[in-house]
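ARCHIVE RECORD
Type: protein–small molecule complex
Small molecule: NAP
Source of inputs: curated submission
Record status: active
Notes field left blank by submitter.
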Amino acid sequence: MPTNQTIHFALLGLGKLGSGFYKVWQQRKDKFFEKSGYNINLKKILIKHPEFTRPSFIDKSLLTDNPMDIINDEQINIIIDTTGGIEPIFSVIRQMICSGKHLISANRMLLAAKMHEISNLANKHKIYIMPEPSLGGGIPIISTLQKDLISNKITSVIGIMSGTSNYILTHMSEKNISFEDVLKTKKIQKLGETLSFVDYEGSDAAQKISILAAAAFGIDINFLHLYAEGISKVTHVDIKYAAEFGYEIKLLAIIREHPGNFEVRVHPTLVPKHHPINAIKSEYNAYYIKTDLLGEYMILGKGVGIDATNSLIIRDLLGLAEKIVYSDFNIDFNPTWNLKPVLPIQELESSYYVRIPCSDKPGVIGKITSIFGRYNINISSAHADTAKDMPIHTGNVHIFMNNACEKNLHRAIKYISKLDLIINDIKFFRILEMEDEVS
Ligand SMILES: NC(=O)c1ccc[n+]([C@@H]2O[C@H](COP(=O)([O-])OP(=O)(O)OC[C@H]3O[C@@H](n4cnc5c(N)ncnc54)[C@H](OP(=O)(O)O)[C@@H]3O)[C@@H](O)[C@H]2O)c1
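STRUCTURE (tokenized, with ligand):
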């Protein structure tokens, strides 16, 4: 067992996450020293505003607002990024990587936008980047895919990656209240890091899935270029009808590999009631993975929270320190890029549910289904009802279809929405593919 060795690291940022890390690290570092026999020392903390008052438990002698104090310190081998945003921190991190420092990052925005550049730079300078804490929870999904399932071919990963969105959908469904009413509750205000449209409009999940896609599959996609739709347009009427037809609505992040391309997308999805991912309620996150050898596998855990994120940061810190002590480096760990393209959403073939509010007249279903037929869309079932909350002589036509092309669906909906019998906006949801259901 190595003794008398000290591995030095620096913390970038001392906000909610950074100071949470500091506190847990102070409490636990001696235990890690006892177990490992080497010392892991926090040498410096980078902050932006030296004039801010810091919590009393922080050792103020570690603070600096000058990144060069860390960049030029050759003893510091590891940096933990708990700042936010892209610039100016990207320029700082770039210099740190070039000076040979390994990176553990919780900075989701930066990794989602610059993963390609950071990975390539990291490979060039033979350093590790550990992006898992940026996914915003404690679930070790990247390491599960890269290490535990290394002998498997991963065919799909279906994730609930936004704890805030899952909380909102769960409460809309269980309490039969609107999206806006859930947003007013005290608990939801506490859940979001900074509760904003980013949390529930899909871009939070899009950032996370772009990092996961890069780290675990080598898919090179900027989160701004992938299809991401949030939950703000989901109503409790949608949830009620979904339940009547045997589904729940979940905000799913989907990565699926095909021979010629990848699907990477985020959107509200109808999930068959018996599917295990429907068991994930409130702020919990989960990943439902399909592989060739293991079959189906699901991991779940807290999707938001400082302690949950610090669980991964500390794991990565200990892992990197051990690698440095034992000079155990295998740089292939960073993404190597897969050149297969990501399928544009318009080219997607999926199952869909479409709800068409229309006049309640004989022959309506036939008229609507014949239009879908013209656009090469096969209907698997069609139902009509007279909704109680709609004006007299009006109702809904509900259509289910398999293997429809999204482009054709949009064209058919555009055509149908111009018919005289349509009385309100037509809504559609993608349905979780049969191949992702439990066999
Ligand atoms: N909070 C969570 O539960 C959580 C979970 C997972 C991931 N994350 C990610 O972790 C990051 C931090 O989140 P947070 O909630 O802790 O945010 P926060 O409370 O706003 O803290 C940000 C910290 O970064 C420092 N900072 C920002 N820009 C800097 C710069 N250019 N140079 C030096 N320091 C800089 C700030 O310094 P000053 O204090 O001097 O202003 C502050 O201490 C974000 O990227 C977030 O997405 C957060």
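CURATOR ANNOTATION: The chain has three domains: 6-136+307-333, 141-304, 349-434.
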